[in-house]
Amino acid sequence: AVISPQDPTLLIGSSLVATCTVSPDFHLKAEDLYWTLNGRRLPAASYAALGPTTLSVALARLNGSKQQSGDNLVCHSRDGGILAGSCLYVGLPPEKPVNITCWSKNMKDLTCKWAPGTEGETFLHTNYTLKYKLRW
């Protein structure tokens, strides 16, 4: 089985529609499936069959992830077996760094320092890229 999207990163308050598609080899149909989020079964009213072997779930107004490893969205077979899983990373990214200063002694080596922005409410992996341009 396959869940899509796989391991998405989302902002707090976002909505998500995920799908679970099982291979015909499993001999399962969409009505044989259900969803859990962090071990709690999601209400069937949030499901929609998108085809004979594909079940979607709609999640609205997501809260921040409760753990650094993300929230576990799992697709199960009727008997409780785990078919596929995805980690949802929900949060607010940290603010951009401030007070950036850079200097160079010889026009080749550049040294920079900065103060990090506030952490925000996040377990989101965030990368920043510093770009510079020589004035000459």
TrEMBL record:
<dbReference type="InterPro" id="IPR036179">
    <property type="entry name" value="Ig-like_dom_sf"/>
</dbReference>
<dbReference type="Pfam" id="PF06328">
    <property type="entry name" value="Lep_receptor_Ig"/>
</dbReference>
<dbReference type="InterPro" id="IPR010457">
    <property type="entry name" value="IgC2-like_lig-bd"/>
</dbReference>
<keyword id="KW-0675">Receptor</keyword>
<dbReference type="InterPro" id="IPR036116">
    <property type="entry name" value="FN3_sf"/>
</dbReference>
<protein>
    <submittedName>
        <fullName>Cytokine receptor-like factor 1</fullName>
    </submittedName>
</protein>
<dbReference type="InterPro" id="IPR013783">
    <property type="entry name" value="Ig-like_fold"/>
</dbReference>
<feature type="domain" description="Immunoglobulin C2-set-like ligand-binding">
    <location>
        <begin position="2"/>
        <end position="77"/>
    </location>
</feature>
<keyword id="KW-0393">Immunoglobulin domain</keyword>
<dbReference type="Pfam" id="PF25552">
    <property type="entry name" value="LIFR_D4"/>
</dbReference>
